[in-house]
Amino acid sequence: MERINPAFMYAMTRPLHITDIPGYFLSHPDNCFWVAEAEMDGQPKVTGMVGVEGKNDPQSEGKKYGELYRMIVSSTCRRSGIGLRLAKTAEDFCKERCFSKNRLAVTSPQKAGMAFYIRLGFKLALVHTQFESPKWMIWLTRATILVMEKNI
Ligand SMILES: CC(C)(COP(=O)(O)OP(=O)(O)OC[C@H]1O[C@@H](n2cnc3c(N)ncnc32)[C@H](O)[C@@H]1OP(=O)(O)O)[C@@H](O)C(=O)NCCC(=O)NCCS
User: Fold this and answer.
1) Cβ(81) to ligand 1 under 6 A?
2) pLDDT-derived band of residue 96, with 50, 70 and 90 as boundaries?
3) CATH number, domain 6-151
4) Ligand 1 in contact with 112 (CB < 6 A)?
């Protein structure tokens, strides 16, 4: 039997922002969504994406933080700096809005994601297993969720 991919399972249990990008990310001033494009065979192709949602920061009265969602770079375009540029764009957006920090969650098997965010200066803030999915699924994947933060 194949093991369930924990990253896939985690993505499936998160709110489906991705199905309504204009409605969710582009209709609120504290949210935004970006795509990276490159011309391939004369056609523009999406090579990466990231979204930000501004949320109230309970540890910082009156301030917000930016939660990063859906950071992904096309597998054929990795390690060429697209992720860094997307992350910088998202961080600049959060700075402009005077958010206190950036925050995101990765699952423990997402080693590239973790290395990437550590390189960007994120630090581990919390480890948990609060997947919104049945306990048997969590047991099968043995994954944990790592919450990472960066003050900006
Ligand atoms: C994580 C991800 C977005 C990185 O995108 P990318 O465009 O390849 O990243 P960059 O080229 O900008 O890399 C910047 C730096 O991050 C680090 N990094 C990126 N990928 C890495 C990997 N696979 N292993 C180790 N370090 C890595 C390196 O320090 C890299 O600098 P270098 O190439 O000069 O060594 C991409 O691998 C991805 O889409 N992964 C699948 C989805 C995912 O895990 N998303 C993040 C968690 S939600």
Assistant:
1) yes
2) very high
3) 3.40.630.30
4) yes
